[in-house]
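# step 3/5: fold
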Amino acid sequence: MMFDVEQAVRMRKSVRAYENRPLSEKDKSLINGWISKFGSEEGPFPVPINIYLLEAKKDTDAERLGTYGVIRGATSFLGVTVKNTEGAMEAVGYRFEKLVLAAAAEGLGTCWLAGTFNREQFSNAMNISEEEIFPIVCPIGYPLEKKTLVNSVFRKFSNADKRKEWSELFFENEFGNPLTKEKAGEYAFPLEMLRLAPSAANRQPWRVVCKDNAFHFYREENPKGKYPYDLQRLDVGIGACHFHLAAEECSLKGTFLTLSNISISAPNGMKYLFSWATH
């Protein structure tokens, strides 16, 4: 692994205020390398995605790439496009979060934006085809050390620093039977890294049931909203990235796959997505 997983996970914060200066050539080269590596790899969700680095040449360009005042000072943005096929949102979440963690490990700030940016303006800048959707944009740059009112307000109202307890997220054999860290054993670390993953409005829609030497991933259904894609599935992709990177760091062997017959009774509003089968 190119970075320490736990360190990167704990360093990653949603940064909304940046130093108003362009990326250095060194950092731009790093980012383009990550785009090439993570954008093209297949991984467990082999849906092709495209990642773009957009740079504002002057302040008016930065304003044109509108974020409705949510982001301050950023001059560079990452955009992701994908065809809206089965598994697309998991692929975007999984692979783009790798880039976000790599950036955090290098001291660069980022912030996933799913609803607070001007899609038309970014879409025009990226020449997106009619077959693609544009679910995410992300500023990337140097965090402004001084806390801003905008950042403080967003962190407060999104409960950005809070996470659900293990007993609410992870279960043994069936829903309603919490999985303890002791019972999770060597998988306690990957599950904890999953627990710390970011999600829209910090809802943490993922649920995991450990049964028959596998970890079965579900997502709690929430209203889709106005977008033609499922943000909860994107969030589960982000969580799967944290889980998988931590498992690899611990040399835990397994495979992500989708099972056709799961002998687990799921509560209403809970949808099965995929499993991690150990081997």
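# step 4/5: annotate
The beta strands are 49-55, 76-83, 109-110, 132-141, 170-172, 206-211, 214-220, 254-257, 270-278.
# step 5/5: archive (pending)
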